[in-house]
Amino acid sequence: MAHSINSGFSAWLRRDLLLAYRRRGEAASPLVFFVMVSTLIPLGLTPESARLAEVAAGMIWVMALLATLLSVEGLFASDYQDGSLEQLLITPQLLPMPLLGKITAHWLTTGLPLTLVSPLLGVMLSLPAAGYLPMLCSLALGTACLSLTGAVGAALTVSLRKGGLLLSLLVMPLYMPVLIFGTATVNFAVDGLNWLPPLAILGALFAASVALCPLAAAGALRLTSAN
Amino acid sequence: MAHSINSGFSAWLRRDLLLAYRRRGEAASPLVFFVMVSTLIPLGLTPESARLAEVAAGMIWVMALLATLLSVEGLFASDYQDGSLEQLLITPQLLPMPLLGKITAHWLTTGLPLTLVSPLLGVMLSLPAAGYLPMLCSLALGTACLSLTGAVGAALTVSLRKGGLLLSLLVMPLYMPVLIFGTATVNFAVDGLNWLPPLAILGALFAASVALCPLAAAGALRLTSAN
Amino acid sequence: MSWQWFHRLGSPRWFYQSSARWLPWLSLATAVVLLSGLIWGLAIAPEDAKQGNSFRIIYIHVPASFLALAGYYIMATAGAVGLIWKMKLSYMVMKSAAPIGAALTFIALFTGAIWGKPTWGTYWVWDARITSMLILLFLYLGVMALQYAYHSADVASKAGAILGLVGTVNIPIIYKSVDWWYTLHQPATIKFTSAPSMHPDMFQPLLVMIIGFYLFYAVALILHTRSEILRRERKTSWVRDLLNTKKQAKADKQAGES
Amino acid sequence: MSQSSLIKVENLAFERDDSCLFDNINLAVDSGDILQIEGANGSGKTTLLRILTTALQPSAGKILYKGCTVTDCRYQYLSDMLYIGHQPAVKQTLTAEENLRWMVSNSAKSNQLAINDALAGVGLSGYSDVPCYALSAGQHRRVALARLLISEAKLWYLDEPFTAIDKQGVSYLEARLQEHADRGGAVVLTSHQDLALNNLRKYSLSAPAGQIA
Amino acid sequence: MSQSSLIKVENLAFERDDSCLFDNINLAVDSGDILQIEGANGSGKTTLLRILTTALQPSAGKILYKGCTVTDCRYQYLSDMLYIGHQPAVKQTLTAEENLRWMVSNSAKSNQLAINDALAGVGLSGYSDVPCYALSAGQHRRVALARLLISEAKLWYLDEPFTAIDKQGVSYLEARLQEHADRGGAVVLTSHQDLALNNLRKYSLSAPAGQIA
Amino acid sequence: MDGHGIYVWSTVIVTLLVMVWLLVAPMLSRRALLKEVARDILRERARQTSSTSTQGES
Ligand code: HEM
Ligand SMILES: Nc1ncnc2c1ncn2[C@@H]1O[C@H](COP(=O)(O)OP(=O)(O)OP(=O)(O)O)[C@@H](O)[C@H]1O
Ligand SMILES: Nc1ncnc2c1ncn2[C@@H]1O[C@H](COP(=O)(O)OP(=O)(O)OP(=O)(O)O)[C@@H](O)[C@H]1O
Ligand SMILES: [Mg+2]
Ligand SMILES: [Mg+2]
Fold first, then answer.
1. Residue B191 in this model has a pLDDT that exceeds 50
2. Which residues of E touch A (CB under 8 A)?
3. CA atoms of A16 and B154, how far apart (whole Å)
4. Average pLDDT score over residue span A64-68
5. C-alpha radius of gyration, chain E, whole number
6. Are residues D87 and B78, on separate chains, in Cβ contact within 8 Å?
7. Among the listed ranges B157-161, C142-146, E65-69, which one has the minimum average pLDDT value?
């Protein structure tokens, strides 16, 4: 059974990656969103780089959070509509493992690209040089937390058609600690402080999410898809 | 036929309002999104009111834009999936009128509430007192432009399942002028300048959108849903 | 045998019928305590040296803030009990607790904001406690929205319970993080008047008001739960019997009077 | 007398991505006709119906309604037509009654009584206030089919109307179609089942060469 | 010999929002059986199947698989089971082949040859690299049904498998079901059509009182 | 109240309004529900009597 538990994970991971690959154009959208909204900010605020530098870390993090939030909505939506979710619920494997596979695929297709492209935005928003490494580390860890927590919200709202914005209400409060420690990591580094403590807290949040979120999402899915 | 042209408008307007009413909780979501994201900003940036005041107008406008953008995605999505869109395409009425009805319903359920709730956000982000009236005027006009323009994008992406984030790519450039003149209206007022000229430009943008967008959306719908 | 009380407690019918008996007494006590506390606080207690009369807002603000927080834990606990022991009644309690908690959170925010104007010169600042309170309001609204979104009462309550549980894990994290965030940025100008140094003459009415708010919370919760019980059990025979006996009683009364 | 045909299809062809799905289709449907389009899965029945309803453009050929091409008398044609596709256009969050009221809002007979009768006719009288996502597959389709009991359209295009409908429902519907035809209407439908109808005509689409087992 | 029943359902009941859909359902399915669940629209066939697959919880009663309740031998039961519902679980953006490969990835027979054979079997050999949104309604369902040609599950639950399938396809499928039963498998299916099968047993669900016309 | 009255009284009034609403809303909905149940009972009775007198209505 050990084998089959794992196979639940990797099978769904591979499947979701294939699906994302099939819709490359669309899978790239969170990224596009991230970049485009970040270009809106100078338009809405100010083009002066000194003032942009002050808000850069916060803005990059807020936009990464939004991009993840918006894409996490689709995690189960199409599976629900075409009946795949029903099939998932009756696989012999324990539900959390396939879910973890799906969430990992989600992170690989949104959080990871966001992290990799963030230095570009750092340049556009004049982020000071000391902030780049902490930004990469904190985004990598933080977006993983966001995908995991978001999955619980997505599972809770999946059977409500078009529940995307309700989802924001549910998970946004849960996202706030991640945002706080994420920006703190970057800002500490920019201010010349030791940025490892906030990063360590992010790591702890991540560990807790990995342990709890797939379970909660599994419970929520069994519940909501049963009506 | 004059009668039936109008009835196409008001029938679809009433229907979409009824649908929104049926999902009140969800129709309120853009609003919630707007308010919640605005609380993310101090968390990401700074809690100091003086610094928040500087970015308030821009942030409120960026968030209003995002909230509209995200909700406009659903304008045709569920109609496409359940076949209603196909029925819309074969109504005897001219297509733009029903579409204008749908767009009006969308504005009434998103843009208008956003506008009405914006003073609250103004308080939270310490917007100077002179900015409130211009903010209300510019948001009312501006969100209408956003709904109209967004409808064209939504029509273009509707047949690509889950095209929500692709949509952002398409319409974001079209949203930029609205954003620029919207924030300009508020910022002019805050700086004690005459804020009517940028508002007048918004008005012109609105007039142009009303005339063109329903036509363009009709064309796009015929095109995309035909495959 | 020892489980019998537990079973009975879980029965909506039992709760509906017995709560009808305590409710009048509880309401009376609430009214007395709240009124006396309000009069004491607003009219009798001395003025604050620094803040003058605006200080009296504390008699609403602090009890409301207390209950807003406590209410979340009550709600989440009810949800957890429902999930674990599959108790219908506690789901109903959970659903009822959400709007009450949200309303109290709103009161805390509103009174605090109004209080801010005379003391800080602004309605809103991003203080740690204020921010956490706002987030708490969102958590409440999330549970409520979920309840309304599902048409099946069963699914709605379980989904709400799961969200409540996730929220309970998160609330301490949120509070700690917001607190930490604020200490990073803390501008020196703003400070609460500190509670412990309060004069007993000011403190005693506050205590009364806190007790009054707890009582009020209980009354409101029972009322909401009763109507929720009716909503979900309206098809059952005991509700129908209830109505029949009521009609019977009315008829008897009329017959007796004439 | 070619004008007397309600619908006349001449040399219709359709190709998608440069491969031809069908061509040279000639059809005539008169008042009182019921035309069943047959063919294996993927032979193009749905595509043909969607072309007839003007939702799709044909690659060649024309469709005449009472002797005039449908692009010229579009308003008249679409007003006289009713189409129920694979997707029944039933809104999940609305109740059966609301769905129906909305669907027939262009029809003269759209009063409450007619709506209640139609819902009762398709066996949904007890369900008028249940949101449609809580209906079974067959009930869901019945909501859409209730339009047939109200509609005053002359021309019905039905794409597999009997999907998910139980036997009693099928015979009820058949009677309804027969009645419509007898009153001078016309029906074009696709179905894989054999129908018990008088004046039924069939038109077979052949599958694109060699692809259907 | 009650253990020898593959599936035994005892006193099953289901209620939703405090109204009872069905109760007191007793069923036994043995190897070699084909059980058709009949009933009017809305009588609860889909609900019953979903309960049998453990996707829904019954309000009362139990389901025994080889004599042991399905919650106890969940892994074994779900491994031996195959379910195709109203929604065929076919991904629109994947090709037929990819869909099939994914669906059967737990099965031992999931090699390329078997997949090609199965697609040919359901008449989709020419379509293996067409994304499924470009398939017709019947072809779409055929992709899901291709699982039946690969699956090694003993127990098949099929909810209206013949929807949208043409006549040739229906008789092919019937033969396939027969073969599965003859080889010792068991099939539980719902359908509104009459099937031409040996050892077919029927179970009728009655409609909830007075609501079906 | 030396110019602070408006602040104190507005908070008191709003608080009282919200609290009263918290008490009144469930009472109103309870009453509406009881009425609905009563109506259901009447309707059922009517249906029973009519179905026993005229067998087999729609
Ligand atoms: C929107 C604004 C405000 C919110 C959301 C808010 C929230 C809270 C909360 C949640 C508590 C309870 C803390 C606990 O349980 O330990 C509290 C207590 C208190 N608040 Fe506020 N507050 C606000 C504005 C104000 C203002 C303007 C003042 C006065 C200048 C004030 C004075 C106090 C005092 C004196 C206490 C009790 C003493 C203490 O626990 O420290 N608050 N507030
Ligand atoms: N999600 C749901 N919520 C509430 N009620 C539902 C839900 N799904 C189905 N029902 C109700 O349960 C009953 C049984 O539905 P089910 O789908 O099992 O019927 P069925 O026998 O499969 O019908 P059909 O032949 O139309 O497919 C119906 O009366 C339906 O209204
Ligand atoms: N959106 C599309 N894009 C490309 N090809 C399509 C599309 N829709 C259908 N096709 C192809 O066109 C052909 C005809 O499809 P159509 O839906 O008309 O068939 P049908 O006769 O209705 O079949 P069925 O009996 O299965 O409903 C099929 O081979 C299908 O693969
Ligand atoms: Mg078809
Ligand atoms: Mg069914």
1. yes
2. 50, 53-57, 74-76, 78-79, 81, 83, 85-94, 98, 102-103, 105-106, 131
3. 25
4. 88
5. 17
6. no
7. B157-161
Nearest CA to ligand 1 atom 20: C62
Over residues D94-135, the pLDDT tens digits come to 889 888 888 877 666 667 888 888 999 998 888 877 888 889
Count CB pairs under 8 A between chains C and E. 9
Q: How far apart are CA B82 and CA D133, in angstroms?
A: 12
E-contacting residues of B 140-169, CB under 8 Å? 161
C-alpha span between B10 and B206 (Å, rounded): 20
pLDDT category of residue F57 using cuts at 50, 70 and 90: very low
| Residue with the larger pLDDT of the pair E64 and A36 | E64
Q: What is the mean pLDDT of residues C2-17?
A: 72
- Between C53 and E165, the higher pLDDT residue: E165
In this structure, are strands D60-65 and D68-69 parallel, antiparallel, or unpaired? Answer: antiparallel
Q: Rounded distance, CA A55 to CA A93, Å?
A: 46
CB neighbour list of residue E97: distance below 8 Å, 6 or more residues apart: E115, E116, E119, E128, E129
Cα dihedral sign, B147-B150-B155-B159: negative
User: Could you give the CA distance from residue A102 to residue A79 in angstroms, rounded to a whole number?
Assistant: 11
- Neighbour subunits, A (≥3 Cβ pairs < 8 A): B, C, D, E
Q: What is the pLDDT of residues A11-22, one digit of tens each?
A: 888 888 988 888
In whole angstroms, give the CA distance from residue E1 to residue C10.
Answer: 42
Tokens of A144: 């993983």
Residue A122 distance to chain D (closest CA, Å)? 45
Ligand 1 atom 15 nearest Cα? C66
What domain range is F42 assigned to? 25-51
Q: Using alpha carbons only, what angle is made at residue D36 by residues D34 and D41, rounded to the nearest 5 degrees?
A: 165
At B95-152, the pLDDT tens digits run 899 999 999 999 999 899 999 999 988 988 888 888 999 999 999 999 999 999 999 9
In chain F, how many domains are there?
1
Q: For chain A, what percentages of helix, strand and coil (3-state, to nearest 5) are there?
A: 85, 0, 15
Q: In this structure, are residues B40 and A177 in contact, taking their beta carbons and an 8 Å threshold?
A: no
Residue C243 contacts residue F31 (beta carbons within 8 Å): no
Q: How many helices (H) and strands (E) does chain A have?
A: 11, 0
User: What band does C56 get if pLDDT is binned at 50, 70 and 90?
Assistant: confident
pLDDT at A73: 82
Give phi and psi for E153, each to the nearest 5. -65, 145
| Whether pLDDT at E105 is above 90 | no
Q: Which residue of C has its CA nearest to F26?
A: C224
What number is the average pLDDT over the span D25-48?
92
Choosing among 1.10.580.10, 3.30.565.10, 1.20.140.10, 3.40.50.300, the CATH entry for E1-80+154-213 is: 3.40.50.300
Q: Percent of chain B at pLDDT above 90?
A: 31
Greater pLDDT, F10 or A164: F10
Sign of CA pseudo-dihedral D130, D132, D135, D139: positive
C-alpha A190/C-alpha B153 separation (Å) is 40
Domains in chain C: boundaries:
27-234
**Chain A neighbors of B160, CB-CB under 8 A:** 26
Q: Cα(B145)–Cα(D115) distance, rounded to whole angstroms?
A: 38
Using the structure block, give the residue that is written with the tokens 């369902």.
E141
Tokens in use for E135? 């398939």
Averaged pLDDT score across all residues of chain C: 84
For chain F, the straight-line distance linking the first and the last C-alpha, in angstroms and rounded, comes to 71
Q: Looking at this predicted complex, what is its ipTM?
A: 0.83
Judging by DSSP bridges, how do beta strands D186-190 and D155-159 pair with one another?
A: parallel
Domain boundaries defined on chain A = 2-226
